[in-house]
């Protein structure tokens, strides 16, 4: 083999390797960028939340949900962080946090929490978990990683009630509050959804589908409605101790 031919082949191989490395580097950057974007849920918000039964003196309980989430258009998977916070000056005493899904949003798991049995779920919901928070000190918060799926052909809502451990009182309830978008992107890898936005479902043909499921007033927790009462680690049951009334918006 002539030295000229050997040099040419070496140049081609070097160029090919360099091109492959550049392509690999670019792909890695794209993957890392997408992962960071998927995990970026923005600041927490108590949008759609309201105080219910009076909390003990010096205790102020609230919850936070991310202002935005991202739904994978292929797997329908999404991740949500649910946070309960005591903004008061005294410890809360034993409390529970519930994470309940409605319509297109289904809660598949909450880290460290117990599933609520199907027959014990609040009316209109499709899934739920109970988290035993314990006593939350003043100024402290506790966050839970929520694994969920979202069927983008439907509307989707989530609800976070904060209850006494015996289930007799609901101190705070966020929701059912929607996650959604008014600008669906079915051909993109993922669809970003915003808290407090009604989802605008799109059929394969591009036509808007009718909204499905229950409204914002279907989870009558607290003094004005029925109570979820603790029934061990297996979950909770829906008890009609008092007449149901729709929640006020």
What is the fold's blueprint, element by element?
Layout: H1 3-39, E1 44-45, E2 49-51, E3 61-66, E4 68-72, E5 77-86, E6 94-103, E7 105-110, E8 114-115, E9 125-135, E10 141-150, E11 156-164, E12 170-180, E13 190-195, E14 227-230, E15 236-239
Antiparallel strand pairs: 1-3, 2-12, 3-5, 4-13, 5-10, 6-9, 6-11, 7-10, 8-9, 11-12, 12-13, 14-15
Largest sheet: 8 strands, antiparallel
Report how far the terminal alpha carbons are from each other.
Answer: 84 Å
Mean pLDDT: 76
| Cα gyration radius (Å) | 24 Å
How does the helix and strand content classify structurally?
Answer: mainly beta
Can you tell me the overall shape? elongated
Strand content: 35-45%
> Count of helices?
1
Amount of helix: 10-25%
Order of helices and strands: HEEEEEEEEEEEEEEE
The residue ranges in which pLDDT falls below 50 over 5 or more consecutive positions are: 1-39, 205-249
Please count the beta strands (DSSP E, at least 2 residues each). Answer: 15
Folded structure, characterized:
It contains 1 helix and 15 strands, in the order αβββββββββββββββ. The longest helix has 37 residues, at 3-39. The strands form 3 sheets. Strands 2, 4, 6, 8, 9, 11, 12 and 13 form an 8-stranded antiparallel β-sheet that branches. Strands 1-3-5-10-7 form a 5-stranded antiparallel β-sheet, with no helix packed on it. With 249 residues, the chain is mostly beta strands.
């Amino acid at each position: 083999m002539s030295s000229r031919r050997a040099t040419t082949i070496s140049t081609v191989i070097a160029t090919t390797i360099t091109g492959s490395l550049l392509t690999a580097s670019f792909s890695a950057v794209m993957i890392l960028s997408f992962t960071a974007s998927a995990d970026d849920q923005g600041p927490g918000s108590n949008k759609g939340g309201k105080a219910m039964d009076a909390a003990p003196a010096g205790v102020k309980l609230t919850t936070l949900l991310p202002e935005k989430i991202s739904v994978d258009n292929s797997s329908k998977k999404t991740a949500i962080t649910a946070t309960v916070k005591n903004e008061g000056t005294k410890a809360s005493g034993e409390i529970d946090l519930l994470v309940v899904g409605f319509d297109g949003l289904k809660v598949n798991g909450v880290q460290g929490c117990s599933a609520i049995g199907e027959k014990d779920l609040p009316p209109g919901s499709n899934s739920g978990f109970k988290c035993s928070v314990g006593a939350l000190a003043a100024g402290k918060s506790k966050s839970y990683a929520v694994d969920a799926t979202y069927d983008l052909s439907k509307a989707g809502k989530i609800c976070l009630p904060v209850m006494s451990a015996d289930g007799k009182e609901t101190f705070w309830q966020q929701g059912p509050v929607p996650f959604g978008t008014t600008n669906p992107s079915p051909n993109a890898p993922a669809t970003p959804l915003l808290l407090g936005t009604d989802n605008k479902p799109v059929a394969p043909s591009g036509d808007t589908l009718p909204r499905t499921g229950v409204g914002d007033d279907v989870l009558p927790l607290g003094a004005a409605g029925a109570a979820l009462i603790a029934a061990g680690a297996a979950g909770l049951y829906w008890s009609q101790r008092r007449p149901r009334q729709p929640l006020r918006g």
